[in-house]
Structure formats: structure tokens, C-alpha cells
Amino acid sequence: MSHTAHIRSHRKPRRSASTIAMRAGVAGGVLSTLAVAGASGSAVAAEPVTQTLELPTLTADLAAQVAQSADVTQQAAASYELQAERDAAAAKAAKQAKADLAEAKKKAAEEKKKAEEAARKAAAERASRNAERATLSASADTGSSEGSGSVSSSSSSSSSSSSSSATGSAAAVIAFVQAQVGDAYVSGGTGPNSWDCSGLVQAAFKQVNIDLPRVSQAQSTAGTQVGLDNLQPGDILYWGGAGSAYHVGVYVGDGMFVGAQNSSTGVVQAPLSYDPPSGAVRVL
């Protein structure tokens, strides 16, 4: 027995049977309540299992998102590929443009070289023509006084007397052809700085409103046939047969003629002995 058992306040009261039974009943009720609550809680806890029906919807959304992401990735890849193709095309175009520019510069240099060469050649030909004209002029003085070839002394005398009397249309024709002496000969040329033989004759007579045919063959029959011993300034000289002439010129008097001879000489004034004509026609 405890040493404090005799003290009244330290004694534990004894519990009655009714109190114990009541407490047991309360405990049992509590346990029953807990059991019911537990069962109810289990039922409530089980309810979310029925919500798994929503999972397929979530799965479909996820699949759509994945598909959309794949489309975006594919579009990005296609865009990159297109950009790469454009870059490659631009690089190729730039390379081709560079090559074209180089080729153009090369051609320009070649053309410039050809032009310079042509200019030098033209200058040399002009110098040659000037020298030849000087020679022809000296020959003309001799030919006028002495005569040669098919031109007789009487015809030279007749020509000398008639040249000083050339007036009107004949004088205009002669002045025109003499003004072209030194110009270049070009086949098919009709002026103003290059001629062929019939182009020069046609242009000369056009100055006096006379329309001649374009070619030598037709010009050789365009007027009245005259003898070479009866020439007058302004007569058309021809080489070859009448109607089949291959060359024409203009008689300017004093036993001289002007004609676009060839590419080497150009337009010259020369004595008839330089290249004796076959015949002549008069249209003035």
C-alpha cells in the first residue's frame, strides 16, 4: 500500500459498472460510426474510378497536339528546304551573272580592238586615196594634153571646149559628183559618205530632179546613146554592153570622169585613159 494511500485526495475513485458499460456503449457507437464513415469513405473514394471515362478524351487531345506539332515541324523543314533551294538558285544566278559580265567585257574589248583596227585601216586607206588622187591629178594633166587609149585628140579637144561651157543641170550634176571624191566605195552604198557606182550616179541626177534606175545595167540605157568622141559634161559613161553594163560614172569634161570605182580607191576623179569606158548615154 502506498504511503500516500491514507491521504484522501490521492485516492483514485472507483469506477462503477454502469459507467464502464456506458463508456463501452459510447465506444461501440463511435466504432460503429467510424465503420459506417469508413465504408462511406471507401464508397466515396471509389467514385473517382468511374471518372476514367474522361481519359480517352485527354488522350485524343494529346494525339491532336502531337499531330499539330508534327505538322509544324514538317512545315518548318519544308520552309528550310525552300530557303536552301532559293539560296542555291541565287548563288547560281550570281555565278552566271559574273560569268556573263566577264564574257561581255571580253567581247567589248574585242569589239573595241576591231574598231580601232578598222579606224587605223580607214585612215591608211584615206591617206592612200589622197596620194592616189594626187597621182591621178598629175596623170590627168598629162592625159589632157597628150591623150591615150581609145580617146582621140579631137575628142579631148572637144571635151576641153565643152567643160568650160557646162551650165545648169550639167553643172549641178558635176559639182555633186566632184564633191564626193574621196568617199568610200561600199557595194549597195547610196551615200551620204559611201557609194557604189550606180548609187553615186543616181544621187547626182536626183539633184536636178531626174530619177534614174538604181542599177548600172538600166542606167546604161536610160538616155540617148552618144559616141565617146562626142561627149558632153554630164553624160553617163558605162563599162560593158548597153543594157548589161557592170560599171557607170559621170563625164565631167576635160577628158575626166568621176566614179565610185572599188573598195581600194573609193570615189575618184580620173582621166578616161585611167579606165576607158565602153559607151555613154545622155539624159540632160
From TrEMBL:
Belongs to the peptidase C40 family. This is C40 family peptidase. Residues 1-45 form the signal peptide. Residues 112-132 have a biased composition (Basic and acidic residues). It comes from Streptomyces rochei. Residues 167-284 form the NlpC/P60 domain. Residues 143-164 have a biased composition (Low complexity). Keywords: Hydrolase, Protease, Signal, Thiol protease. The keyword Amino-acid biosynthesis does not apply. Pfam families: NLPC_P60.
